[in-house]
Write the structure tokens for this entry.
Amino acid sequence: VFTLAIGNIKPVVEVKSRRVGGANYQVPVEVRPSRRLALAMRWLREAAKKRSEKSMALRLAGELLEASEGRGGAMKKRDEVHRMAEANKAFSHFRF
């Protein structure tokens, strides 16, 4: 369940700000494997903190189960990051 949840949360692309000719562009870039894992763990922790269960153990367990099923706060964050990258893919030629 844990590996499935982490695998579901891992982002493939993210956006980075790049200044070109006086304008800032959100440029989509691929996420390297070590950062993917770090981001997935961070998002899982943050989503668990925002849950309403009594103990952190229950919050984390609930978030892990939801992430393994493809839903929950951490999955929402991943989808949001992917949506940003998709919306800004016109600027991907600024990647250098």
The beta strands are 13-20, 23-30.
